[in-house]
Amino acid sequence: MANEKMDVLDYEKGMVFLGDDSRIQNCMLKAKKGEQVKLAFLGGSITQGCLSSTPETCYAYLTYQWWKEQFPKAAFTYINAGIGGTTSHLGVGRVQEDVLSYDPDFVIVEFSVNDPDEDAHFQETYEGLIRQILSWKSHPALMLVHNVRYDDGGNAEAIHRPVGAHYGLPSVSVKPVIYHAISEGWITAREVTQDDLHPNDLGHAMVAKTITTYLEKVKERTDSLKEEPVIHSELPAPMTVNGYENARRLRNDALMPLEQKGFVKDETPQFCVADCFKKGFRAENAGDKISFEVSGASIAVQYRKTVRRPAPVARLILDGDREHSVELDGNFTEEWGDCLYLETVMEHGTSGKHLVEIEIVESPEDRKEDFYLVSLIVAD
């Protein structure tokens, strides 16, 4: 039955922008020669594999399996850098640590159900992420994947696809494939997702098939090549203000506190990328405070909003401006789990050094959890 449902979809409709596939061809040539090839997947909860029954039934792993089956002589490395509930703003801050540090050959980026629709800020962070990947020393191939919300067909393609087109990047979308099949009544939403967002195993298989249908076309062209493709490493001028191309995430191994009262450095080991509440600072009592000096023109603070309420509330003060302090409420009002929350506190401000002060201002006696400062993300 699952195979029958797979067969009713027209996966070629998902190839929304063919782009320049020379980097993918180059990656395939490496694989044909039996060389080492590193495949990386960066995105949110769908990339992480939320609601797939096993890690091996998520779309990222199924795409990795396709590469292994097509190029059996190659030695493949699989890098899943998906973290649930996160946007391209966090992606641009962590891409060097979680993806580029491996010198990948092929990267998929997937943030189209996490970035808000029609938002210039997230178009800019998405472009900064793309520029970081394309300019990396290993010259990785980059492919964009656009997932969709299955209740209303919404996603951020309106801001993501123009960026991809600007850089000539291959892009696939499941909206004209899976969501279209649901709209036409060929399949029901509950056959592919239980919450209208995260695919089940069948849904993940359909997402992977949308991706590999494009890759199969590239492989056909690669097999008929007479010479190696020319890789274009020079990037066009940015299409946005481009304030995030050099964004970086600062955790407790890079943040040196100027003042530290009550905040404790978390030194418990991090087991994987998705084990995300690590390498930060904890605090629990009103009056606990910590401060840092960081450099940049844009600054964001990342902290935990927890479902284990009540939790402490903190306040962030930038450059001593108490009148415009930012509340950091550790209480999460949704129920799906703890949120890796990211709050922008300055964007396109004055480049240079800035003082960031964080203080716990409320801490209920019956608190169920402490306040967890995860990181700062800064960019010039």
Describe this structure in words.
It contains ten helices and 16 strands. Strands 6, 8, 9, 11, 14 and 16 form a six-stranded antiparallel beta sheet that branches. A five-stranded parallel beta sheet has the order 2-1-3-4-5, sandwiched between helices. It has a five-stranded antiparallel beta sheet with strand order 7-10-15-12-13, with no helix packed on it. The termini are far apart. 28% of the residues lie in helices and 24% in strands. The chain folds into two domains: 2-223, SGNH hydrolase (Rossmann fold, 3-Layer(aba) Sandwich); 248-379, Jelly Rolls (Sandwich). It has helices at 2-7, 22-32, 45-48, 59-70, 88-98, 120-134, 157-166, 175-183, 189-192, 201-223; strands spanning 36-43, 75-82, 106-110, 141-146, 171-173, 248-250, 259-261, 264-265, 281-283, 289-295, 298-305, 313-318, 326-329, 339-346, 353-362, 371-379.
Task: State the distance separating the first and last CA atoms.
Answer: 53 Å
Helicity range:
25-40%
Tell me the radius of gyration.
22 Å
Please identify the top-level CATH class of the largest domain. Answer: Alpha Beta
Profile the largest sheet.
Answer: 6 strands, antiparallel
CATH superfamily of the largest domain: SGNH hydrolase
Low-confidence stretches: none
General form: globular
Q: How many E-type strands?
A: 16
Q: What is the chain-wise order of helices and strands?
A: HHEHHEHEHEHEHHHEEEEEEEEEEE
CATH architecture of the largest domain: 3-Layer(aba) Sandwich
Mean pLDDT: 96
Tell me the structural class: alpha+beta
